Amino acid sequence: MTLLRRWSALDAVLALLLLYLVAVPLVLLLVASFKPTGLPLDPGWSLVQYARTYGDPRFYKLAWDTAVFAVGCTLGALCVGGVLAWLVERTDLPFKQAARVMIALPMVLPPFLLAMGWALLASPRNGWLNVLLKDAFGLAKGPLNIYSMGGMVFVETLALVPSVYLILAAAFRNMDPALEEAAMTSGARWPFMLRRIFVPMLSPAIFAAAAYLLIVGFLVFDVPGTLGLPVGIYVVSSRIVYLATDQSGGTSAYGQIAAIGATYLVLLLTLAWAYRRLTAQASRFVTVTGKGFRPRELKLGPLKPLALLLVLVYFVLAVVAPLGMLLWTSLVPYLAPISMEMLPKLGLAQHRALLDNVRLAGAAWTSIWVSALSATVVCTLAMLVAWAVLRGRGGGRSLIDTLSFMPLAIPGTMIGMALVYVYLTISFVPIYGTAWILVIAYVTVYLSFTSRAASASLIQLHPELEEAARTCGATPAYTVRRVVLPLMMSALVGAWVWVVAHVMRELSTALLLQGDDNTTVAVQLWSYWAGGEPNKAAAVGVWLVVAMTLLTVLWQWLSHRRPGTTP
Amino acid sequence: MVDIRDLWLTYPGATQASVQGISLAVEKGEFLTLLGPSGCGKTSTLRSIAGLETPSAGSIAIAAQPVFDAGKRIAVPVHARDIAMVFQSYAIWPHMSVRQNVAFPLDVMKLSREETRQRVDEALDMVGLRDFADRSATRLSGGQQQRVAIARALVRRAAVMLLDEPLSNLDAKLREQMRIELRDLLKRVGMTAVYVTHDQEEALMLSDRIALMNGGRIVEIGTPRGLYLSPSTEFGASFLGAAEVIPVIATRGRVVQTPLGELELEREHQDLASVTIRPESIAVRSVAEALPASPNRRPARVLGVVFSGRQQQLRIELEAGHRLTALVDPHRAYAAGDALQIEFPPARLMPLRKET
Amino acid sequence: MKPLFPLAAALALGAASFGLQAQTLAQLAAAAEKKPPVTWYESSPSDQADKVIAAFARKYPTVKVRHTRMVGGNELAVRTVQEMQARGYSADVVTGGADHLFQIAERGYLDSPNWASLNVPKPLTPLPQLMATTASVYVVAWNSNKVKDAEAPTTWEQVLDPKWTNRMGSWVRAAAFAQLAATQTPATAEAMLNRFIALKPMLFKSTFPLAQAISSGEIDLGIGFYHSTLPPQKAGAPIKMRPLDIVPMHIIYSGVSKTARNPEGARLLLSWLASEEGALAYEDATGRGNPMVAKTKTAEFIKGKKLSEWPPEKSGQLGELNEAYNKLLEKVGEAR
Questions:
Q1: What are the helix and strand counts (H, E) for chain C?
Q2: Residues of A in contact with B85 (CB under 8 A)
Q3: How many CB pairs under 8 A join A and B?
Q4: Which terminal CB of chain A, N or C, has fewer other CB atoms within 10 Å?
């Protein structure tokens, strides 16, 4: 059957590509976990890594603390991100353009800079906010302590909101008001509608966001490392980083990392299975039918100033405040709290020095082209994966779906290490130590998020829009080009910008894959900070944020100008 | 134009086939409707013709070209079939203007700009939307969107147009208006059409022939008049319009024995299962009228009246407690309790044989 | 199968290297010039390494060196092993902590050059494959606004005084105490560590942010490194430091790979680093000096003090102690 064969070809190509990108690190991970030395190519098999990891009672306290942290910031980000997305997409909030930029902007701030900024703001002794509050209210001790589980959850939530916002905003934007109107005319009030209409209709998007957040919460290091480690609060990721860098005895640590990674895989496969069950009845969630509508906007009336205030508060907490601290840090000669004494010492020396910094310029160029290329490749791949899984009929669909979600479970360090092995071995492909290996790593790492975003967007398109095109004589490829892609474009562009922002700020994988000339801005920034030059790092950080802000503003402006589709 | 032979379609995971051995031939220029209740397989059949579903067995040919043949392993993809389709949800692309929507099939064919423009204008004229050409598709009302969908289907000049309940989402008034327009338009262009609907009034108004479907099979097929006035199955009688079904206890030539007593038919019959009569065919007279004797007349009493402008529905009770509904013109007022004489004109009693 | 090839290559080149012994430095330079650049894995930030290499280039303008930063000793070890296993060669020169270099040497990857011919004094090479290059030296650092100089500790006993509770900072690794155990016995060191933990120190991923936190006054004092306390000091922050009565330290060693692609250049680099000129240049650029080269500021800083460190061959024991002590230090969270 000619039609079936053509579908399967796409399935086959995608499946092979994904197997290569995903299965190789995965296999290396599993093999390493069963090696006594933790290195996949060493001889012998053993369960010692598992014994060491799971036999240690401290691991379970660790897992519990991690779970608390992950669930905390998942709920936090879902609530804040959900409310903000709803305000922007479903109410008559004024200054929507500005609001969109303000909410998406925190993406550009590397999480460890965000954490550092907040440490400077709310550290118990010297934090600027604490000093202000102490003086203002005559307190004995500063009331805020960012070095705590609460502080960690707070800052990580701030960092995660943009990702949640992107997913949920796209879903909100595409909801057919007829569905709500039907509920309203049956006498339903808003709380009821929320529970029985909105939440169920949006459940694939919400679930996708929640699943992603949970996994990230379990894996992320920067914030818990900066805010938890100093006071002895550890999460699994800090254990992984400790194993990778601080534990003496060197190589065996990687085996334990692999053993931990194995658990994540199980957790992730469960989440992925649940997600697929939920979205199997994809037709239940179709909301874009081409019947044409304008999304119904709730009138805020007297609540408008309050709503604007909410957006503003988020922006201040997530961007302005930490950025302000960074700016201050970039202007002082050494790390010091804001005080009158320091004022005469302010200077632009660090900023001026950036202009002559040749290494930094090279790193900037590397970051730019690696992020642009990775984003383009991964978004294209994500779109194809979403289409094959949701519209295809071949048997390879569930395999492709699972493979595309899996990289999320593999710690970035593992993916990095695996890639080192692969490209050292097939040395006729000379990408080891170059920036190309970074591109492959980032495509693998960010495939999960982008394929979820693409799926969430595609799920909302009524299949009849594509069927209509086919009955007009369009081949599947032509249909994708003229119907599917334009309608998915806003979600795909959003994902593209997200990937660029994340690549620009990504640290652990870039560090591992460092070669002779593939230093990125994030790596350079971090090496200044960790190497005793926080002021230089702050200066670089400030300009990084400025550049990414310009990009985000440009993106918002462009997407608003495109005619026809909902922006 | 469309030749379907012994089509079977079972969806994966289903215990029963949705289409069970359908055979159908649609003539060139004919407007054929697939009519039936939900789940009868009419949409599945239509989508199989389009190629959006792949049948399990049988064959389909469009304009004498085989597009599907299970035995010979032929399955022509959707985009290569000489069809045009109008969907229930209109499926207008929100990111394109009206003109771009209608021009889409021509873009696929890679026609010149000039020719595309010409044909799009022509199609838009036919549906009366020429002034809306450059409007964004999202700024149209339901009816306008449906017309765009029709224009898009027309512009392709395909061999057959497939319509899947295209008017179901419109309000009643608009629907009535569009029905006539649609039929006139298609006839004018000489288009062969296969139409799917569950609305029997619509089917009667629009079709040259109706294929009545139930449970995946074609129960009856015929012209609207033929099916309405002389159905050969009970399902046909009661689905297409309303019908009062009177079971037959015994048949003796022209007379049948029923729970309402003996009734005389127009002709001789054998082995009837029931006779039915349309409510509007039941003759209603006042008790006062003097009438010649008739075997099919009975006294009755009015139980209730429903006035709906064009007609009145009378709920009537006969002597033995049997109840029927009759439709009469609106001019005379009736009240509950009125005594009447009702008659079943022999020519109007439709005989139904036992279904084997 | 895999390990055999690099091993064979290593043996072959190892045999060849004996022939290099007798060459003078000038001959080495001439030979190195014709070969690919010397690859060097080391942990300094790139711009600091650039300065070191620039200084080297002033002495040997024809020998090129390519530095790659390896963050954290584990990465160095893993990367070297991975590369040797996968393609048979890694960096020409590797510089890292005793335990990591020892592991690499144990796998047979490092060569044993004739150090004497390279003008490297015997004390710098406790093992034939390893040459002491620099060191991380532990100091006590304090914020001069919060702690008067007279008050600041001079001995370990003073460091462990309960008056420093909630005012102390430390590296997240308890490596200082592990090194103390080399001269004070493990039992004593562990007792000291427990008293230290009772001070509820604030933990830092590396000693650089530790020094920064002392400068900003977030903590009053801490146990850090000499070279990581220098930067804020140079920038004018109110931070001071001094060595304690017993000075634990980590000597950083360098080794030459058996399958180095520019073995002459590699030896030249190490010879230069061990010389006064090279050691001073390295210290200038990175802040870390070679304590065994008398003229370096680091050597002067610890002059006369009692040093405490495990020798490289005892790396296994050091590793176990590190593990155990790190575990203890983690309990700071509970102490709070």
A1: 15, 10
A2: 467-468, 471
A3: 112
A4: N
| C-alpha pair distances (Å), A511 with each of A226, A417, C70, C114 | 17, 11, 9, 35
- Residue C335 to chain A, least CA–CA distance (Å): 9
Q: Closest chain A residue to B169 measured between Cα atoms? A: A291
Mean pLDDT lowest for which of A243-247, B61-65, B293-297, C9-13?
Answer: C9-13
- Per the CATH hierarchy, to which homologous superfamily does domain A2-561 belong? MetI-like (1.10.3720.10)
Q: How many domains does chain C contain in total?
A: 2
Residues 6+ apart with CB under 8 A from B288: none
The CATH code of domain B2-239 reads: 3.40.50.300
pLDDT in tens, B179-215: 888 899 899 989 899 999 998 889 999 999 999 999 9
> In chain A, positions 43-102, which contact chain B (CB-CB < 8 Å)?
none
Q: Which of the pair, A529 or B207, is modelled with greater confidence?
A: B207
B near C: at least 3 beta-carbon pairs less than 8 Å apart: no
Q: What's the N-to-C CA distance of chain C in angstroms?
A: 53
Q: Which domain holds residue C290?
A: 4-134+251-299
A564 touches chain C (CB under 8 A): no
Q: What b-and-e string marks burial along C9-34, b requiring 16 or more CB atoms within 10 Å of the CB?
A: ebeebeeebeebeebebeebbebbee
Q: Is residue A565 pLDDT above 70, yes or no?
A: no
Decide which of C217 and A190 is more confident.
C217
d(CA B200, CA C226): 93
CA distance B316 to B328: 12
Indicate whether C186 and C313 sit together in one domain: yes
Every domain range in chain B assigned CATH 3.40.50.300:
2-239
Cβ separation A487–B83 shorter than 8 A: no
ipTM at complex level: 0.82
Asked if A289 is an interface residue toward chain B (Cβ–Cβ < 8 A), one would say: yes
pLDDT in the model for residue A524: 84
For A433, other C-beta atoms within 10 Å of its C-beta total 17
CATH number of B245-353: 2.40.50.140
Q: Tokens for B249?
A: 């206890």
Q: Do C235 and A334 touch (CB under 8 A)?
A: yes
Taking CA atoms, C192 is separated from C141, C154, C174, C243, C330, in Å, by 18, 15, 11, 17, 15
CA A300 to chain centre: 31
- What is the rounded CA–CA span in Å between residue A547 and residue A363? 14
Give the best residue of C4, C48, C78, C101 to mutate against chain A (max A CB count within 10 A): C78
Least confident of A261-275, A321-335, B206-220: A261-275
Distance from CA of A180 to the nearest CA of C (A): 50
Cβ of B138 within 8 Å of Cβ of A478? The answer is: no
Q: Are residues C46 and C118 in the same domain?
A: yes
Q: Does the distance separating the beta carbons of B78 and A464 come in below 8 Å?
A: no
Among partner residues A234, A345, A532, which is closest to C208 by beta-carbon distance?
A: A532
Contact A336 C69 (CB under 8 A): no
How close B165 comes to chain A (CA, Å)?
A: 13
Tokens for B102?
A: 């209608």
Q: Which of residues 426-465 of A touch B (CB under 8 A)?
A: 462, 464-465
